[in-house]
Design brief:
Elements (H helix, E strand, L loop, with lengths): L1 E5 L6 H14 L3 E4 L17 H11 L4 E4 L2 E2 L5 H15 L3 E6 L4 H7 L6 H20 L2 E5 L4 E6 L11 E4 L6 H8 L2 E3 L4 H18 L7 E5 L1 E4 L3 H10 L5 E4 L1 H13 L4 E5 L6 H19 L5
Parallel strand pairs: 1-2, 1-13, 2-3, 3-5, 4-5, 5-8, 8-9, 9-10, 10-13, 11-12
Antiparallel strand pairs: 6-7
Length: 304
C-alpha cells in the first residue's frame, strides 16, 4: 500500500513545497492537493492556495513522488481545458501525475465566483460526460464529441501525456451513480470514509464492475485519514476533540501500525494522510517521520 501526504491549502506555498520535498526525501509515495478556491465554513476568508499552479511548481521542483488532484471539481473547467492542463503537468513531472476528478460539492465557492452549481444529478451527469471527453482527448489524435453538455469539433490534444494512459481517479462515494462512473472510467477511485465503510463501498464498486464485465482489480482504491501518534489517553482524547477532519487514526505507535495494516489487509492501495493536524515547520516534519516509522512497515510488510 502506498502512503502519501496531503498538504493543506491554507498554508503558504513555501510550507507546502517544504512538506512535499520532505515527503520526497524520506520515502513517502505521493503528494496530493485539493482543487478549491477558498475554504468552506469559518475559514472562507483565509488565504487559500490554488491547486493547478501549485502542482505545476511541485512537478518541476519535487522529482520522485506521484502528484495528484484530490479532486478536481468538474464544474470549474471545461473538460477539454482540464485534459490539456493535466497533460502539461504530466509532462512537467516526467509522467507522475494523477488526474483526480469529482462532480463538485463545495457550494460556497460556486456562489462566490459565479460558477453554476446545478443539481446533484446534473453535476453527476456532467462528470460522466467529462470522463468520456477526457479519455477520448488522451487517446485520439482528434476528437469530435457531441454530448448533452460538451461539444468538441475535430479537437486536438498535443502533446499527449507521457503516461499511457494518464491515470484518471474518480472521487466520491455515491453508490448508485458515482461508483458506477468509477467502474466504467476510473483507473483509480478515492473516497473519504472509515475502514468499515470503505470495505462496503469497495464491494459496491466491484459489483458495478461485474455488471459491465470489467475486472475490479484494474481499479486502484485509495482513501484518506488523519494520523496522530499519542503516548497517553489524555493526548489521544485531546486529538479526537480537536481533529479538523475524520477519520482519525490515533493511539500508540503500535496501534497506529495495526490500524494502517488493517487498511492494507482490506485491499486499499493507497492511504493519503492530511497534514492538517501536524503543525508547521520542523514540528510537522518530525510528525511525518514518526508516522512513516510506524505506518510504513504496516503498509509495506514485504519490504520490512
Amino acid at each position: 500500500m502506498l502512503l502519501s501526504v496531503w498538504p493543506g491549502s491554507l498554508q503558504s506555498y513555501e510550507e507546502i513545497l517544504a512538506t512535499a520535498r520532505h515527503a520526497e526525501a524520506t520515502g513517502w509515495d505521493g503528494v496530493w492537493f485539493a482543487d478549491h478556491f477558498m475554504a468552506d465554513g469559518d475559514l472562507d476568508e483565509a488565504p487559500f492556495q490554488e491547486a493547478w499552479t501549485t502542482l505545476s511548481a511541485l512537478a518541476a521542483l519535487v522529482p520522485r513522488v506521484r502528484l495528484g488532484t484530490l479532486v478536481v471539481g468538474n464544474t470549474y473547467r471545461h473538460p477539454a481545458v482540464l485534459a490539456k492542463m493535466a497533460a502539461s503537468v504530466d509532462r512537467i513531472s516526467g509522467g507522475r501525475f494523477v488526474l483526480g476528478l469529482g462532480a463538485s460539492w463545495q457550494e460556497n465557492e460556486h456562489r462566490a465566483y459565479g460558477i453554476p452549481f446545478y443539481t446533484l444529478s446534473d453535476r453527476l451527469a456532467r462528470l460522466e460526460e467529462a470522463c468520456r471527453v477526457i479519455q477520448e482527448l488522451f487517446q485520439e489524435d482528434r476528437t469530435t464529441f457531441h454530448g448533452r453538455f460538451y461539444r468538441l469539433e475535430n479537437a486536438p490534444l498535443s502533446p499527449k501525456p507521457i503516461q499511457e494512459p494518464l491515470p484518471l481517479m474518480i472521487g466520491g462515494g455515491g453508490e448508485k451513480v458515482t461508483l458506477r462512473i468509477a467502474a466504467r472510467y476510473a483507473d483509480e477511485w478515492n473516497t473519504r470514509a472509515n475502514l468499515e465503510t470503505m470495505v462496503h463501498k469497495m464491494g459496491v464498486l466491484d459489483g458495478h464492475c461485474h455488471d459491465i464485465g470489467r475486472d475490479p482489480g484494474s481499479i486502484r482504491r485509495s482513501t484518506m485519514a488523519l494520523i496522530g501518534v499519542a503516548d497517553d489517553e489524555a493526548t489521544e482524547a485531546r486529538m479526537r476533540e480537536t481533529a479538523p477532519f475524520s477519520p482519525l487514526l490515533t493511539g500508540s505507535s503500535e496501534r497506529i501500525h495495526d490500524q494502517v495494516k488493517a487498511y492494507a489487509d482490506a485491499g486499499i492501495d493507497e492511504l493519503i494522510i492530511p497534514d492538517f493536524n501536524l503543525g508547521t515547520g520542523n514540528e510537522k516534519r518530525e510528525a511525518l517521520d514518526q508516522i512513516l516509522a510506524c505506518a510504513g512497515p504496516a503498509a509495506r510488510p514485504v519490504a520490512c
